[in-house]
Amino acid sequence: MKKKLKNIANHLLDLGKRNRLLNYRDTGLKSLNILNRNIEELFSQIIDGKAFSIFMLDSVLMKYHKDLIIEPEKDDILAYSDLKVYDIAGSLLKKNQILCYKRGYPLEKVLYALLKEYKYSIQEKGINTLYLSFGFIDYIEGKDTYTAPLLLIPIDLRKEKEQYKISLYDEEVILNPALKYYFKTEKGIVLTDYQNEELADYFEVVRSLIPSDMTLRISCAIGIYSFLKINMYNDLTNNLDIALENQNIRALLGDSAALAEPLVEHPVFPVVNCDSSQLEAIGFAANGKSFCIQGPPGSGKSQTITNIIATLIANDKHVLFVSEKLAALRVVYENLKRAGLNDFAIELHSNKANKKEFIDNLYKTASLPKYDIQPSAEQVSSKHSALKLQIHEYEKELHQRLPQYDCSLYELFSMYFELDIQPLQRKLTDTNSYNLKDLDAICTCLDSYTHYAEAIGYDYRNTPFYGLLDISNDYIRYEIDQDLSKAIQYLTKLAALKDSLSKHIQLPVSSITDIYNSLDLIEALVHLKTYSPLYLVEESRNQLIRLIKSYLDIQPLLKSDTIGHYRESVFREDLEDLCIRYKASSQGWLRVFNRTYRELNAKISAYRKTKEKPAVLCRELEELAEYKNNRDTAQGLLNKIKSLLGETKEEDLSLILADLESLLGYKDMKLGLEEYQALKPYLTDILISFHTMSEENAILSGLAARFDSSVVNLFTCGVREALDKLKGIYLKKNHLPDYVLLMKCVAKIDEYHQLDFLHYYLKNGLDIHKLSLQYRKEFLRSAIYDILDKSPILTGFTGYQEEKVIQEFQSLDEQIYHINRDYIISRLSQKRPDDVLMAGSKFKILVNEANKLKRQKPIRVLLEEIFELALDIKPVFLMSPLSVSTYLENRVNLFDCVIFDEASQIFAWDALGAVYRAKQCIIIGDNKQMPPSNFFGAGAEDEEEDMTELDSILDMGTLNLMTSRLKWHYRSRSEELIQFSNQSFYDNGLITIPQAKAHEPGFGIDFYYLSEGRYDLKTRTNPFEANKICDMVFEHFASSNQSLGVVAFSDVQARLIERLIEERLSRSPEYAVYFDDTKEEPFFVKNLESVQGDERDRIIFSICYGYNDDNKFYQRFGPLNNLGGERRLNVAITRAKYNVSVVSSIRYTDIRLSNTDSLGVKVLRDYLQFIENIQIRRQSGQAADGMAADVKRFIEDLGYDCYPDFGTSNFKIDLAVMKDKTMVLAVMLDHNHKYKSNTTDRYRLEQLLLERLGWKYHRIYSVSWFNHPQSEKERLKSALTEQTVISQDGPKDSDYLCESSGNGLMEQFREYEELSVEAGKKLLQERDLAYVIHELIRIEQPVHEEYLYKKLAVIADSRLTNVFKNMVRQAMDSDIMKSGRFYYLHYPEKISLRIHSERTIEQIDIEELKDGIYKIVRLNNGITVEGCYKALIQLLGFSRVTEGTRKILDDALVYLKLDGGLTQRGECLFV
User: Fold this and answer.
1) Residue 1287's pLDDT is what?
2) Strand 291-294 and strand 918-925: pairing?
3) Strand (E) positions, 228-281?
4) Is 889 helix (H, G, I), strand (E, B) or coil?
């Protein structure tokens, strides 16, 4: 890995022969010879600070050419030799003028190019690359001779009133470092640095060091050189082992395990607006993660950096911010300044930073007050958190997955409102347990019902088929037709029979059952053996049956053998009485003497035909008595029967009974005997006729069985009704299969207990085609109400109330940034040094340097001495890779975090010197933008066609570290400006905001096609295009105050445009105000290579390339042809905020992709095609969901045009409302966004960004739109019609700081709390010594034993003797502990130093002293040991540090160092 790092570091060396420091060539526009003869005098005056003006040679040579040359056409003034030029102009030189000349170029052109390059290096990089070179060494390598400049003096070049002037930029005279290194490593020659001797003397020293085949020439030139990377090379190669200790270095070199250390989560402290993607990156940074941030154009990289820096320093981290471009560094500094944190940052971008300004800046900040944060900040934070939680809970209720429905409440709203149908205002029943699958199943059934109902009839209950049970397809196909025909015929006959019977039989005959019952009656009547009209009267019929049955039941009892033994006359007697008396008198053998017995016996014997014993007679008398009773009863019954029927024979009674019973169950009717006898033959014929129709009867019975008897009973309904029913079925028999299927749907609906809804719908005659839609609407409505009723959050929710909550949240959300800022200021200001620590502190060193008028220490030296103090004062260092190597100590992890900005433009090898100086590494850039340029290649000539893709630190980081992406785009005020880049480079991953303003010239993208434009192959320019752009620049400033920049594909085209503008400006000086470089966004003309990081309101883009004068187009596109050319194009087309004006001499169809494999050329063609075909159209789609569709319908009903899903990126305006071709409102719903977002994104930034782009903003809440539609619609109508003034001002900046009133160091420690002598005496009187000891130790622990004895002696008014000490020890409670010589009730977890006590240094616990030393060092990192001890002793109230005191403090310090709390370097202590 060390070898790998060394190889990477070698890229910092440029020892090739393209390096002008090793191979000086008098070509191109980056060098200029000085022809003055007095070189040594010039050298001396320059280093003494004298300024020189450059002799304006061009006009003199032109005059010479015009006036003195005989054949001017043969004379080329650009080809003159140096000697000739000196002969012509040397004598014209004035004092303090230098004569410069460049063969082949006008002097003005060379000076212009040098000035531009010089300005660019200063403004963009903060580094001077313009030098005077004195002396040149010619050396041989192989067969070739090379020239290298020897001494270099940095100079300043400026143009004042058409006059160029040079002066000393820095006092340092530099030996060409590249030459020095090359000679030492390759040739073994060690050149000596210049030591302020005379120039001639130094040249002699050099001549003595170089071999004879080398020549030192005495000459002078101005040139562009960059050799400063040699510092970075030395920094890295001299510290390889140190660098490899850094985990980020190892990770970037491919060690995947280097960053395996677990991270600790820390809070974030954003101080400016940040979206969710930025907040994610800030969170990674807070937790110590090393990672990359991909930040596409306009995605807020600088504000993300600001928030990352704020978060890190809020968490007590020290930050090294690195950018190669000065502009990027200043943007971050200005952002910190706007956020109020610039006091904690210091710029050290240039390798020639002003040490006086640096020291004064440090001292001024260190002397600022300390601040505390007010309690109200905590109240605001708590309120903000509560509101955020409230909003989150609403969103959670709205969007969480509902298990029953497998969707969210919002999705239910969407489904509900998608149905453009009014609800029935009728609650469904038995749906609480159903889900959406059940809903779909029910709706499928209802849809099927609708389908079949079109054939069967609207209401299935009103169709002929109603009542039919499920019948098989085979029966329908093969049998029903015949069965229906026969049944209809049969019913027709029955109907005729019914009519006939109705005439002859006085019975109600309606149904088939009535007919069958009538036929049964007829059959009974026909088969009667007897007849009486009473048979057909139920009451008399039942009476007769009862009488006859009783009579017939008695007849068996009238058959007895005993009767035959007696004469009939016996029945005249009262047999029961006779029997009783005879039984009584015939008992025993004395009966013979009983007169009664004898009389009765004689009487009975007279009736009996033969004699018998008394016992037999008694039995027989009983039988005779019973017989007599039965015979009398039978006779009574018979008499009653005869009274009803008339004379009736007893033998006919059984026949009569059978006839009567056959008529049971029939209703009463009147049918006289004569009528019966007359009707009987007719009835017999009817009966015979019916019996012949048994087959039809069976068919009818079979059909009847196929009906649900509770709905249709063919036998109980009217005959005509049954006949009509079957006829109706017969007529529509072809629809029977449909009916069967329909009834299956009905059965399924019934299974779901939803027949009530179907019947209600059919009863009210509603549109059958909307049946399932209506049910779906009602189901969803019931489901939503059920959910709302169960939610305490959503019950009673209104849009009006929620809007008030959000407005308060928006205000507090902004205030949180101010609170974070003030928290940071408060926290960091407490680290500013105290005067009490002055002695021996690093602050003392700073104060001394700040008070010096001259000879201040160099910045690197000062930083090495007070670095920890500098970090406490300024925890943020803003530097370039070069200044890191120049000023910072070669020590690993000097900082907690290093942040690289515009990292795609920083070579990996340039960055590693900064990487190893920090524990954490954050690399920010965009690998779809500019790769690194070879700006620091040491003097390589400008060959724009020869460019390759070089490895940046961003490329290296992307390969080896995690990547976070910024998603929101803020720059473009028209989506047109970013749309192509978003699609072509970022896979539509950028969240862009649609603008309210329509496309128009000057807003969006304008395409200017110049058919007359021609590309000059020789000059590589397009003059026609350049002139057009020059005109456009002045036309712009004549009508607009917007900032403007011009971007050209090539540097030569840019220089041409710039020259044309300067010429125009010289003729129109009134425009000079628009070209002021001090403006916040000054006008510029740049090429593709140098425009990254810039942005302007309007960009004019010169394509330049095209057809030449021969009408040929060679398809050459400069840097675009090279690898990564498309990235350069991406930079150029994304610089504008309002407008890009593309000026081109070609159309996209002129680019032939068949001639090139270059991706850059293909992307250029696509871009030209895109901008040539931009139409004035609205980027909108379909309504995203049913909720949006419902709101859209309402808005359109009000007469507005409404564009759903408006926008070109993943961010869409849900409903963009237009009136009279003007966008009047952006309506946003509370659905889940397609893009990842947080509460701030959705409820503040979204509105903020839309209003910035001209929208009036309105939010609709789905819960309220459903639950309170009228009020929500009124709110929307008001938003559409009211003229809302969009505030351009942010919320008022609240200040939560108050200046600290106390001494910062003193406040770190608490006062010593003691038991007073008076209190002790009182306790001793009230209690005892043991209690006083206990209380003293409790209050003052840890208590040294000698201090304890002494104080107790005072309290007890006793002398301090051994006896007293022994008494104290004996009085101590058992719960008092002792450690060493200190007493405790319990040993505390942490012991803090207590000040202002009566204790000696020996009586203070060493843990207290350790705490005091640590806090003093923490407050003034780098304080000397002596200074620390003095501060501590002063706090404790002692006058000086004695030897004994020093020994005790040394012991405490040793323990602190062993514990790892402090480290010591030299005499200085560090946390």
Assistant:
1) 52
2) parallel
3) none
4) coil
Cα-flanking dihedrals φ and ψ of residue 668, to 5°?
A: -65, 145
Q: Is the pLDDT of residue 772 over 90?
A: yes
Strand extents, DSSP E, 1129-1206: 1136-1144, 1201-1206
Angstrom distance (rounded) from CA 606 to CA 610: 9
Main-chain phi, psi angles of 747, to 5 degrees: -65, -40
Point out which residues pair with 968 in neighbouring strands: 991
Quick one: three-class SS letters along 1213-1236?
EEEEEEECCEEEEEEEECCCCCCC
Q: Look up residue 785 and give its amino acid.
A: Y
- Mean pLDDT, the chain, as a whole number? 88
Close Cβ partners of 921 (under 8 Å, ≥ 6 residues apart): 248, 252, 290, 897, 898, 900, 915, 957, 961
β-partners of residue 1045 are 1084, 1099
Structure-model confidence comparison of residues 64 and 125, the more confident one: 64
* pLDDT, average across residues 280-305: 94
What is the token pair recorded at 656? 């009569």
Q: Two tokens at 1047?
A: 């971007």
1298: Cβ contacts below 8 Å, ≥ 6 apart: 371, 372, 373, 374
Per-residue pLDDT at 1181 exceeds 70:
no
CA 577 to each of CA 15, 249, 583, 1266, 1301: distance values in angstroms, whole numbers, following the listed order: 166, 143, 10, 101, 141
Q: How far apart are CA 1134 and CA 821, in angstroms?
A: 32
**Per-residue tokens: 1089:** 């290579």
End-to-end CA distance of the chain: 32
Mean pLDDT, residues 811-815 taken together: 92
Task: Determine the 3-state secondary structure of 788 from DSSP.
Answer: helix
**What is the reported pTM?**
0.77
Q: CA 752, CA 449: separation in Å to the nearest integer?
A: 15
Q: For residue 1407, how many other CB atoms are within 10 A of its CB? A: 19
Alpha-carbon distance 858 to 889, whole Å?
A: 13
- Provide mean pLDDT across the span 757-780: 94
Contacts (Cβ under 8 Å, ≥6 apart) of 206? 135, 137, 150, 191, 192, 216
Query: How many CB atoms are closer than 10 A to CB 1183?
Result: 22
Distance CA 911, CA 923 (A): 10
C-alpha to C-alpha distance for 799 and 777, rounded to whole angstroms: 23
How high is the pLDDT of residue 947?
38
Query: Which residue intervals of 646-662 are DSSP H helices?
Result: 653-662
Q: How many CA atoms lie within 13 A of 1381 on its CB side?
A: 11
Contact 1057, 1026 (CB under 8 A): yes
Tokens of 38: 């007095």
Question: Token pair for residue 1285?
Answer: 């003034």
Of the candidate ranges 724-738, 810-824, 1273-1287, 1336-1350, the one whose mean pLDDT is the lowest: 1273-1287
Residue 1329: left (phi > 0), alpha (psi -120 to 50), or beta? Answer: alpha
Which strand (E) or helix (H) includes residue 348?
A: strand 345-348
Tell me which H or E stretch contains 1345.
helix 1345-1355
CA-CA distance, 1414 to 1421, in Å (whole number)?
Answer: 10
Residues 6+ apart with CB under 8 A from 57: 85, 89, 99, 100, 101, 107
User: For residue 942, what pLDDT is reported?
Assistant: 41
Residue 1302: predicted pLDDT: 57
Percent of the chain with pLDDT over 70: 96
Tokens of 667: 């209703």
CB atoms near residue 351 (< 10 Å): 21
The Cβ of residue 1050 has, within 10 Å, a number of other Cβ atoms equal to 23
The kind and range of the H/E element at 139 are: strand 130-141
Rounded distance between C-alpha atoms, residue 647 and residue 644, angstroms: 9
Task: Provide the pLDDT for residue 425.
Answer: 79
Place of tokens 């779809």: 928
CA–CA separation, 1450 and 1470 (whole Å): 15
% of the chain surpassing 90 pLDDT: 47
Structure tokens at 191: 């050149």
